[in-house]
Amino acid sequence: LSELEEAGKVVIEDMEINVTDIIKNVCKALMVLARSKNVDVVWQIDPSIPRILTGDPVRLRQVLVNIINNAVKFTNKGKVQVNATVLATTKKDCTIKFEVVDQGIGIPKKNLDTIFDVFTEAHNTTARRYGGTGLGLAICKKIVEMMQGTITVDSVEGQGSTFNFTIIFGTSPDLMHQQAIQSPVGTLADRVPAEVKGLRILLAEDNMVNMRIAVKTLEKFGWTVDPVTNGQEALDKLTNQNYDVILVDDQMPVLTGVEMTKVVRREEKQTGMHIPIIVMTANAMAGDRERYLGEGLDGYVSKPIDRMALYNEIVLLVTQRMKH
């Protein structure tokens, strides 16, 4: 089928759909292609996305595969980040925003307005060089619009592109009731994936206000938090306690977060263990993340702390550690 015919024949089904599973499966499938180019595919999924919605799983998968695949093709180094966030939920539906961010070659400004038109990039030399792309974007736009959503792109040539699209999924009272029985509505802890339930977290933060906010935030996910006020106290705790994750402020008295991390990493060389350490910092300048990772830290969250950013960083690192 030509793209034009294919786009004209889009039919949207309505059945039970697990959005979170579809995103993970698509990302994992495309990781193989990405790894061969030294590109990472990473994802952050809002834990409040209902487990069961109604929509078209095949068409959602088609849109995600198309856009993520393009992002991987056009990225020669770095990562492709896939995000999904709940924008609104009513008794009848749930609007989810999907975002695919790449660090690739970007799209020329003159092409941005026509990127979703049929055949736009068919003769584009860049598209040919990168194995043809953009051909599926007309269909993606058609599918998204038929699922009551919109799709947009922002891009800077030489820096990368961000594709955003929203889709409205159905929530039927029966499904919501079913989910309510399985996990009582109302607590974030019930929505946390099984593999990261009950985490034990060591938090080193010398600012009492920040500490209280962080403890409350983490406990909402059902995690146990031991707070301390400097890096030395954190090291003392580590001598007789095991933790799944350590969160450190970078500026602390006695021992800073980086100094504490260096001590932990030295000791781990003897034990062969590796505990994920995430720095929480007001330094959010370009290059800061790389600098901290170079000092032995595994993750980075900028202050003021965004609850979902912190949650996603913890889940990502703990699940990665489980795979190794």
User: What percent of the residues sit in helical stretches (DSSP H or I)?
Assistant: 40-55%
Counting DSSP E segments of at least 2 residues, the number of strands comes to 12
**How would you classify the helix and strand content by structural class?**
alpha/beta
SS element count, helices: 12
Q: Give the CA-based shape.
A: globular
**Topology pattern, helix = H, strand = E:** HEHEEHEEHHHEEHEHEHEHEHEH
Biggest beta-sheet profile: 5 strands, mixed
C-alpha end-to-end distance: 43 Å
Radius of gyration: 22 Å
Beta-strand portion reads 15-25%
Mean pLDDT: 84
Q: Which parts are unreliable, with pLDDT below 50 for 5 consecutive residues or more?
A: 1-5, 125-134, 180-186
> Order of strands side by side in the largest beta sheet?
2-4-5-7-6
What does this structure look like?
- This protein is of the alpha/beta class and 324 residues long.
- It contains 12 helices and 12 strands.
- It has helices at 3-8, 19-35, 57-73, 109-112, 125-129, 137-146, 173-182, 208-220, 231-240, 257-271, 288-294, 307-323; strands spanning 15-17, 39-45, 53-55, 78-89, 93-102, 151-156, 160-170, 200-204, 224-228, 245-249, 277-281, 299-302.
- A 5-stranded mixed sheet has the order 2-4-5-7-6, with helices on both faces.
- Strand 10 (245-249), helix 10 and strand 11 form a beta-alpha-beta unit.
- Helix 2 (19-35) packs parallel to helix 3, helix 3 (57-73) runs antiparallel to helix 6 and helix 9 packs parallel to helix 10 (257-271).
- The longest helix is centred in the first third of the chain and has 17 residues, at 19-35.
- It is globular and about 65 Å long.
- 31% of the residues are buried.
